[in-house]
Design goal:
4-stranded antiparallel sheet; about 40% strand; 3 helices; alpha+beta; about 25% helix; about 170 residues; 6-stranded antiparallel sheet
Length: about 170
């Protein structure tokens, strides 16, 4: 009789532990899937974190509505030992000028510009240039949308952007 009570107690403890471990595994899978849109990279002494989990489909908006979007955050940390400058470059997944002329982009909610009016490099379009002291971090808020009057034939449904950091030479 005493053995069976201890055995039941042990089985109940093991079932509770098993349920706990299953819950932990489900949570880990959920956390991994949720963080798949955050990209961390190291580039020439800079640590860059790109978080675009709140960015949806690019659609035609007025400038005011475009600024009301969540946007993406591009966090740059200078791990160099000296103050240095960098550029953030955006490269769209299309080269069609008719589409590119319709894209508006905002950096840090300060400037709204046509993508094609920005300085062009081999890697794309320079959206901002900044100088950062050693050990400091700067968070950029980037938003993009099509002009409100964009013709539907100039809308690319699968428009994506690749953001890159380029360290400027001193």
């Amino acid at each position: 009789m005493k053995v069976s009570k201890n055995l039941r107690k042990q089985i109940i403890i093991e079932i509770i532990a098993l349920i706990f471990f299953i819950a932990v595994i489900f949570y880990a899978v959920y956390a991994i899937k949720k963080s798949h849109k955050t990209d961390v990279s190291d580039y020439e002494g800079y640590v860059v974190v790109l978080n675009d989990e709140k960015v949806g489909e690019v659609k035609p908006l007025s400038d005011g509505a475009g600024l009301e979007q969540e946007g993406l955050t591009y966090t740059v940390t200078n791990n160099n030992k000296v103050k240095s400058s960098y550029k953030i470059v955006v490269k769209p997944n299309t080269t069609d000028e008719d589409i590119l002329k319709q894209i508006r982009i905002s950096t840090d909610d300060l400037y709204i510009e046509d993508l094609t009016s920005l300085e062009k490099t081999n890697d794309g379009y320079i959206i901002t240039t900044n100088e950062l002291d050693a050990g400091y971090t700067k968070i950029h808020l980037i938003k993009y949308w099509y002009k409100l009057n964009t013709d539907s034939k100039n809308i690319k449904k699968d428009l994506k952007f690749d953001f890159r950091l380029i360290k400027e030479e001193a």
